[in-house]
TrEMBL record:
Name of the protein: Succinate-semialdehyde dehydrogenase
InterPro entries named in the record: Ald_DH/histidinol_DH (IPR016161), Ald_DH_C (IPR016163), Ald_DH_CS_CYS (IPR016160), Ald_DH_N (IPR016162), Aldehyde_DH_dom (IPR015590), ALDH_GabD1-like (IPR044148), GABD/Sad-like (IPR047110)
Family, similarity comment: Belongs to the aldehyde dehydrogenase family.
Keyword field contains Oxidoreductase: yes
Residue ranges of every copy of the Aldehyde dehydrogenase domain listed in the record: 3-450
Keyword set includes Oxidoreductase: yes
Organism annotation: Arsenicicoccus piscis
One Pfam family from the record: Aldedh
Keywords: NADP, Oxidoreductase
Amino acid sequence: MFTTTNPATEQTLATYEFLTDAQLEATLEAAARAQRSWRDEPVAERSALLRSIAARLRDDREPLAQLITQEMGKPIREARSEVEKSAVTLDYYADNGADILAFEQIPTQAQCSGVRFDPLGVVLAIMPWNYPLWQFFRFAAPALIAGNAALLKHAANVAGCAERIMAVLADAGVPEGLVGNLMIDTPTIERVIADRRVAAVTLTGSTRVGAIVAAQAGSVLKKQVLELGGSDPFIVLADADLEAAATVAVKARFTASGQSCVNAKRFIVVDKVADEFVRLFVDRASELVVGDPTDETTDVGPLARADLRDAVADQVRLSIEAGAEVALGGEPLPGPGYFYRPTILDRVPRTAPAACEETFGPAAAVIRVADEDEAIQVANDTDYGLGASLWTQDRSRAEILTSRIEAGAVFVNAQVASDARLPFGGIKRSGYGRELSGYGLREFANIKTIWID
């Protein structure tokens, strides 16, 4: 049984029962049956359905945003943006899916040769709580336009969001069974992955869980896309626009209360400008409003669970013991709710937890370096490789340095973010495969060679 809790009040919201074996079997069979019909629908019909889902999301924006805020504590303004971003992504694939899936002719000695993109079948999506709508729809939009079916295994603490997603899909006219909601416990996931009706698996989550799912899927030779943790560097060179960098740094670190894989985590700053950057960073972060996430003025809400707040507190404490200096915050807020003060640690040793672990909460680590070469070395000295942000006013230098940074995405003078038009994913222990854009759509397609003579 799942129990959901409001992280701002610590009050129980609802309980949800696990699927019985019979219900699970019915859900798997319904998805396989629905997909066999869906794959034969013209792309134009699939596009129309995605537009219908997007419209339904926009119609239900306020109750959906309120539910996100209740279940995982996201400030209401950010929750509304999440709903809209999900709708925008559905629109993108509705508008572009036909072109991405079009037959790709490749000249050979054959009369006709090339590549077509067929659906794989039923795809299991194991999704996290930090973006309970967006994480699902950024997978589902390309998966559905490609002709696949989807099974959602959502995080337990956003079980209500999972149910509401199913209601949105039903209202939008999604064929019965094409998308299923799996309220199952963790041991049952392996059984679902192994089921012959499941063709592939996608997971967004921690590196530890990703390794487990990869092993389970690999043992039965199922395709996987894994978007895992990150310890994204935010590199500030000596010629950076410090005012702009500090302003974006606050958003890049504290959006979603610091609970995003692509939040900037390590602020790697050249010594020459470090004092000024830290001053500006602290000044702007000090203006953040922490509190009730349903309040329109709140910038930073609670962490989603008590254990997450405690983990951030431990990382900060151990980093201070290792020599880091507290420039701002550094402690939980008293009272109910899983709140932690926005925190900036300066002069963080490279071996401190805040510098070498993924920090999933509102705490930033400033690491000072001598020059740009050391900055790149420190940026790459991590097991992760999801995103990176580079700040310099020298365009030519930026283009050279982007090739040296080990990450799935490098944003120059901007915050790392996902965008439906661009591929998203990481390297190293941040996972493999790509979501979004045409690359993400084709991850769950059979890239089939055609030769006609």
